[in-house]
Amino acid sequence: MFACSESYSAQISTLREIQNLDALSLMPFITPQPVVEEAQMVNVELSGITSLKSNRKLMTRGSRLLISTVIIAMLSFLYIPEYSYISEKVFANVFTVSPNIPAPVTYASEENPENYESNLTAPLEEKILPEVILTSEVAEPKIPTKVTLVKAVSFNVPSGSVALTFDDGPSIYTKEIVNILNTYNVGGTFFFVGTQVRKFPEAVKYVDANGFSIGNHSMTHANLPQLSATDQQYELHQTNQFIQQIINKPVLLFRPPYGSRDDNLNALVANSNMRMVLWNNDPEDWNTRDSQKILHYIMNSKSTGSIILLHESKETLKALPLIIQFLQKQQLEISSLI
Fold first, then answer.
1. Sign of torsion over alpha carbons 132, 332, 325, 138
2. CA angle 201, 202, 206 (to 5 degrees)
3. Which of 34, 102, 300, 332 keeps 20 to 30 A from 284, CA to CA?
């Protein structure tokens, strides 16, 4: 600020309100100058000296532009204090006002399985990954563990382990199940029916080539105690023959359809150097045919030491990724049976 007369201050304030150059002509304290496009020059000869006089003051477009530029510069100088104040306020707001951040998406976890309505392919829980430190060492993938069954009839596995078993294959879902198990680097055991083995021999090869265990689930999925001893032997041995011709390995595991057995069948399996595998965790996926119910059952049952009975189906395939995620979160080894 500097001292000035009241009239000068009033003129300065008026200039501040100007929005364009055309408004200058309306200011009472600025005398408009006429513009002469073509000067009329008069030649006057005085005392032998020739001189040129203009009969009017000349103002070319260039001089008008020069004056306008000077006025604009003056206005800009006058506006600097106000502009600085406004800029300070604007930028202060930009950097002090909290942005509108959307609320994070949460997922239902095993603590509230009854409210679990998430997409079945989504993770059980959103996690923030730690910062990754790159090194020259490459971590080798974890090899799925295997549990060797020593009892003639097994219903469970040691505590800390869990076994996922799949009945009634091979089928159109076999390879997809194998791919999911590989994705999570976990074990699995498949119990094949002889008639299905003849339909999907390539699926049998695929399971074996990926290192998963294959067991016998009878030839026709019959209720074996209702059959004669001869028919029981056929159901067991014929299926073994079909599988062994494909994988060139002996079949060591047997699961009777429906879990139904009698003394004759027990002796037949033992004399064939095979071990019978039953279960202690049955989500009844064959009955519910609902991926969410399958998942909820497993989430609400004791998992450690369990042999989980599953079947090759579309709904089981949908639930399988989340089943594996849940079991891994319990720090359980998902093992193959041998």
1. positive
2. 120
3. 332
What number of other Cβ atoms are within 10 A of residue 52's Cβ? 9
Phi-psi label, residue 39: left if phi above 0, alpha if psi -120 to 50, beta otherwise: beta
Structure tokens at 291: 């991926």
Give CA–CA dist 294/287, Å, rounded. Answer: 10
Average pLDDT, the chain: 76
Among 284, 301, 299, 295, which residue's Cα sits nearest to residue 319?
295
Instruction: Kindly report the pTM of this predicted structure.
Output: 0.61
Query: Between helices 174-184 and 201-209, what is the axis angle to 10°?
Result: 10
Unique residue bearing structure tokens 């390995």: 249
Residue matched to tokens 């999911």: 180
Rounded to whole angstroms, how far apart are CA atoms 243 and 70? 99
Q: Alpha carbon of 158 to those of 102, 149, 270, 303: distances in Å?
A: 46, 10, 22, 11
Please say whether the beta carbons of 175 and 203 come within 8 A: yes
List Cβ neighbours of 187 (8 Å cut-off, separation of 6 or more).
144, 145, 146, 163, 164, 181, 212, 213, 334, 335, 336
Summarised one tens digit per residue, pLDDT across range 46-78 is 344 344 344 444 344 555 555 555 555 554 444
